[in-house]
Amino acid sequence: MLKTTANTEKLHNFSKVCEILDKFDRQPSKIIPILQAVQEEYRYLPEEIMTFVATSLGTSPARVFGIATFYSHFSLEPKGKYIIKVCDGTACHVKGSSGLVETIQRELNLSEKNHTTDDLLFTLETVSCLGACGLAPAVVINDKVYGQVSKQRMKELITEYKTMEA
Ligand code: FES
């Protein structure tokens, strides 16, 4: 089910998707870059947009859904503006990454099942080795890497990002 967001409004406005489709000349062979562009715009692949893309390309929704579910970088669930990736590779795990996950869940009211905040500001993900083991425990928020993150620092980071949005 869709969360209440500004995205809801976006969903009913297909002009962005039309722009994306035009950019790729409505070529069915460009389906993957089209879906990538749609995901960049909406931060996930909304069901009704995928159906619209399928119809516009003259292909079946089943094919589009098939591609979207096949590639792991596509998300069918709404995602937050800020994706917090906590590394849970060996080095980070040893240095307490699970404590960071718990801290984030508590601060943002998230759980094992619910990874995205209702305001669509944050999504929590765990990943295996980010390739920055010297910085363990490492956290990446969107493209920014934070090293040797303590629970306290994690709380501060969340506050900093929230403040940026306030
Ligand atoms: S284990 Fe976390 S960066 Fe390598």
Automatic annotation (TrEMBL):
What are the entry keywords? Answer: 2Fe-2S, Iron, Iron-sulfur, Metal-binding
Keyword Zinc-finger listed:
no
Gene3D superfamilies of this UniProt entry? Answer: Glutaredoxin (3.40.30.10), NADH-quinone oxidoreductase subunit E (1.10.10.1590)
- Cofactor binding description: Binds 1 [2Fe-2S] cluster.
Database matches in Pfam families: 2Fe-2S_thioredx
Q: Which cofactor does it need?
A: [2Fe-2S] cluster
User: For binding [2Fe-2S] cluster, which residues are annotated in this chain's numbering?
Assistant: 87, 92, 129, 133
Cite the GO molecular-function annotations of the record: 2 iron, 2 sulfur cluster binding; metal ion binding; oxidoreductase activity
Family per similarity comment = Belongs to the complex I 24 kDa subunit family.
- Know the name of this protein? NAD(P)H-dependent oxidoreductase subunit E
What species is given as this protein's source?
Oceanispirochaeta crateris
